[in-house]
């Protein structure tokens, strides 16, 4: 039977604009690339991805009472999410992310939180107490109170908690997270949280130990982009190789990765198998444009793994 995951997180409309380079201060640059308004948000990307990988997903989020909010809720339903805890906030606009996508596929993102900033600890507690999840997945794109509530619910009921540490937040009170099953920051988030750039194996280990000294983490999984991922279990470490794919757009690859490792780990209980699955899922996400639109299916991930 599919495992039920409560995903507590943000929903955004991404304003995606391709650009040959990022203009300097005072410079106006004309981009010949196209633009699009596409579904995104770290929470929504992870929720849709977890459902695509076979989980039964309950999504706890907020959108504004506007056309973007309607569009997102409709999409979540289409993608099979339980949206009973996606609230329509009458006072705030739907979150918006301006995603500047460079030719190399890397991006720079500015987020207007809007309704996401109103996702409360009560929203999360209500979602948890009415959905009886097997696990909880969250990120840092919502208020710390909501993340901490998610962690507390998971700890109280002894269900695993998966945390994606994006976006980077130096001031996040990590110590208040109770036990975390998998904690997964990317390179920038790792550096901001620990002061250590994970640019070689020694620094990956130092950063992982620094994180474990602050939080009770079972597995630290550092997302290292085109270097794959680094898994640390408090004693042993492994570097899992990446898949070599053409990079179109890295947006949401990290969200897809964390959803994939969480879903596969719930199925198998094996962290290394799950990390390989997540590397494949992340690789497929970077080879497509957009956030939610780049989420692969479980079959696509397994096909890449089989190659
Ligand atoms: O991680 C990618 C996401 O970050 C985008 O979809 C955007 O909405 C921002 O939240």
Question: Could you walk me through the main structural features you see in this protein, from its secondary elements to its overall organization?
Answer:
This protein has 307 residues and is of the alpha/beta class. The chain has one domain (4-24, 33-306): Ribokinase (UDP-N-acetylmuramoyl-L-alanine:D-glutamate ligase, 3-Layer(aba) Sandwich). The chain contains 9 helices and 13 strands. The chain has helices at residues 42-52, 67-78, 121-131, 144-156, 187-194, 201-214, 253-268, 271-286, 298-306, and strands at 4-8, 12-19, 35-40, 56-64, 82-89, 95-102, 107-112, 135-139, 161-164, 180-184, 217-223, 229-232, 237-240. The strands form 2 sheets. The chain has a 9-stranded mixed β-sheet, with helices on both faces. Strand 12 and strand 13 (237-240) form a beta hairpin. Helix 5 (187-194) crosses helix 6. The longest helix is centred in the last third of the chain and has 16 residues, at 253-268. The mean pLDDT is 96. Alpha-D-ribofuranose binds next to strand 2, helix 1, strand 7 and helix 7.
Topology:
Elements: E1 4-8, E2 12-19, E3 35-40, H1 42-52, E4 56-64, H2 67-78, E5 82-89, E6 95-102, E7 107-112, H3 121-131, E8 135-139, H4 144-156, E9 161-164, E10 180-184, H5 187-194, H6 201-214, E11 217-223, E12 229-232, E13 237-240, H7 253-268, H8 271-286, H9 298-306
Parallel strand pairs: 1-4, 1-8, 2-6, 4-5, 8-9, 9-10, 10-11
Antiparallel strand pairs: 2-3, 6-7, 11-12, 12-13
Helix pairs in contact: 1-7, 3-4, 5-6, 7-8, 8-9
This protein binds alpha-D-ribofuranose.
């Amino acid at each position: 039977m599919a495992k039920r995951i409560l995903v507590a997180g943000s929903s955004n409309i991404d304003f995606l604009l391709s650009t040959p380079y990022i203009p300097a201060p005072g410079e106006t640059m004309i981009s010949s690339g196209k633009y699009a308004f596409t579904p995104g948000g770290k929470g929504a990307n992870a929720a849709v991805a977890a459902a695509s990988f076979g989980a039964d997903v309950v999504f706890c989020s907020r959108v504004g009472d506007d056309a973007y909010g309607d569009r997102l809720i409709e999409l979540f339903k289409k993608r099979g999410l339980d949206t009973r805890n996606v609230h329509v906030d009458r006072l705030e606009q739907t979150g918006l992310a301006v995603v500047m996508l460079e030719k190399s596929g890397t991006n720079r993102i500015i987020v207007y939180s809007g309704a996401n900033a109103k996702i409360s600890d009560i929203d999360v507690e209500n979602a948890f107490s009415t959905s009886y999840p097997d696990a909880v997945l969250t990120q840092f794109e919502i208020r710390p109170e909501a993340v901490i509530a998610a962690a507390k619910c998971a700890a109280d009921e002894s269900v695993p908690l998966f945390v994606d540490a994006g976006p980077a937040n130096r001031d996040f009170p990590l110590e208040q997270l109770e036990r975390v099953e998998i904690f997964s920051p990317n390179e920038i988030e790792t550096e901001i949280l620990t002061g250590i750039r994970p640019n070689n194996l020694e620094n990956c280990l130092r950063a992982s130990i620094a994180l474990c000294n602050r939080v009770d983490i079972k597995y630290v999984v550092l997302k290292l982009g085109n270097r794959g991922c680094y898994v640390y279990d408090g004693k042993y470490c492994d570097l899992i190789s990446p898949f070599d794919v053409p990079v179109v757009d890295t947006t949401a690859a990290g969200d897809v990765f964390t959803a994939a490792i969480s879903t596969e780990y719930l199925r198998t209980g094996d962290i290394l198998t799950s990390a390989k699955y997540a590397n494949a899922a992340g690789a497929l996400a970077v080879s497509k444009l957009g956030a939610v639109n780049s989420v692969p299916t479980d079959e696509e991930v397994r096909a890449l793994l089989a190659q």
